[in-house]
Amino acid sequence: MNFIVKNIIRFIILILLQVTIFNNIQLSGFINPYLYVLFILLLPFETPPWLLLILSFFMGLSIDIFSNTIGMHASACVFMAFLRPYVLNYISVRDNYESNIEQGLYVYGFSWFFKYALILILAHHSFLFIVEVFSFNNFGDTLLRIILSSIFSLILVIASQFIISKK
């Protein structure tokens, strides 16, 4: 299947899953899973930075439109996309990244994907929840919400990779 078509289908499916299922899951107000970040994580390594930012913006804007959150998800996704090249350089594999392959859990291994996803999901969630609160009052609650939501989102991302990715 054409890689562009595959990413368009992934974009639509992740938006539908997020809006219909995961936006309705809130455990004690501290756990809010965001599976849609998987779209940004799985974009090809050779995606130009400007295109990465634009695609991330539209992913976040789509979630904002359905969630009525006025740009919070769009800004968090753009922040995540901005950090992605730096994170990839930081955790780069020894022989650099291969081009024209679909990255995921089985390409560079569990440890690499776990670090990659953890850093970017923590960055996304930190930005999102701090912008949402926009205050340092109850910082402990915000920090707990960031940590718990990041853990739950990371579990969902890794589980989806085990289910969907091919060895």
Global morphology? globular
Please report which band the strand proportion falls in: under 5%, 5-15%, 15-25%, 25-35%, 35-45% or over 45%. under 5%
Q: What's the domain count?
A: 1
Assigned CATH class: Mainly Alpha
User: In CATH terms, what is the architecture?
Assistant: Orthogonal Bundle
- Radius of gyration from the alpha-carbon trace, in angstroms: 15 Å
Short synopsis of the structure:
Helix content is 69%, strand content 0%.
Structure report:
The protein is globular. With 167 residues, it is mostly helical. The longest helix is centred in the C-terminal third of the chain and has 26 residues, at 139-164. Helix content is 69%, strand content 0%. The model has no long low-confidence stretch (mean pLDDT 89).
Keywords:
167 residues, 7 helices, Arp2/3 complex 21 kDa subunit ARPC3, globular, mainly alpha
Could you outline the blueprint of secondary structure elements for this entry?
Elements: H1 3-20, H2 37-41, H3 49-67, H4 72-90, H5 105-108, H6 110-133, H7 139-164
Helix pairs in contact: 1-3, 3-4, 4-6, 6-7
